[in-house]
Design goal:
The protein is mainly α and 285 residues long. The protein contains 15 helices and two strands. A hairpin with a 6-residue loop joins β1 (95-97) and β2.
């Protein structure tokens, strides 16, 4: 019999799709896809580029995003709420200026927050499913409904957030005319292909990172390839590569992968017991 402990399950809990899905190593590929997609909204990416030195602190930004996702997924309810409060506080203080019109706007505009949220959640779901994680359509709808909680944390009205695949598809269809690959998107694209690293790490970047970045880019929707102006391999080839990469990464023992800081999953298991271990077979029908 699996030992369990009484503890705060957090926002989602071990019975959620999110709990099982976010322990998958393909989340890193999905996170890079999300950056590519988010950069295609000119107002949203301008808010990032005008408020941070993306190129010099991009690694820090990636790690902070990963930490936020880990905390909100596997942390206590209090920790998740604190993380959300920090994000909302930072967003309230930041703004951006449209260089063509001179308009000044806040980065916490609901429309911008919604784009960032939907691009991120869509990327997680798309990459995990396409790479072989056994998520059914029903699981996908549950996952999207669950992430109204994370949308609330960043300042969105949960009722305004897509709660299933049909609503998410309708959202992307509505926002599509606003998307473009402007100068800021090109800078993000350039960084993702050639991130700054120590000279001794350049060979590793060329061998490993570029392959991951190319795979994340290839998994984007066709309209994103059209906007960036760079073709992707045939969909069947992309799916085969995603599945191959997923199989390779999932072959690494989970306990070994979860040792990487900040160890959100191991801390959740210590709090809730070994029965809280995330695993695809626990997804249920």
């Amino acid at each position: 019999m699996t030992a369990t402990r009484t503890g705060d399950p957090g926002l989602f809990g071990p019975g959620s799709v999110t709990w099982q899905a976010h322990g998958d190593p393909m989340m890193w590929v999905a996170g890079i896809r999300a950056l590519y997609l988010q950069a295609l909204h000119p107002r949203a990416v301008r808010g990032v580029m005008q408020n941070s030195d993306f190129r010099s602190d991009a690694w820090g930004r990636l790690l902070r995003t990963a930490a936020f996702v880990g905390t909100t997924t596997y942390g206590t309810t209090e920790a998740a709420e604190r993380a959300g409060a920090r994000v909302r506080k930072i967003h309230r203080m930041l703004g951006a200026t449209d260089p063509e019109t001179g308009e000044r706007y806040g980065v916490d505009e609901p429309g911008l927050l919604l784009w960032v949220h939907c691009a991120e959640i869509d990327s997680y779901l798309h990459v995990l499913r396409r790479s072989g994680l056994p998520l059914t359509d029903a699981h996908a709808d549950r996952y999207l409904a669950e992430h109204r909680h994370s949308a609330r944390l960043v300042g969105l009205d949960p009722d305004a957030v897509p709660a299933n695949r049909a609503e998410l598809a309708a959202y992307f269809a509505r926002v599509r005319p606003e998307l473009a690959a402007g100068d800021e998107a090109r800078q993000v694209d350039d960084f993702l292909l050639r991130p700054p690293v120590h000279p001794l790490l350049v060979p590793a970047r060329e061998l490993l990172w570029r392959r991951v970045a190319h795979l994340a880019y290839a998994s984007l929707p066709p309209y994103a390839h059209e906007l960036y102006g760079r073709p992707a391999p045939a969909p069947a080839t992309v799916t085969r590569r995603l599945r191959g990469t997923g199989a390779l990464l999932r072959a690494i023992p989970a306990r070994l992968r979860w040792q990487l800081p900040p160890k959100h999953i191991l801390r959740a298991m210590a709090r809730l017991g070994p029965g809280a271990r995330p695993a695809p077979y626990k997804l249920g029908p």
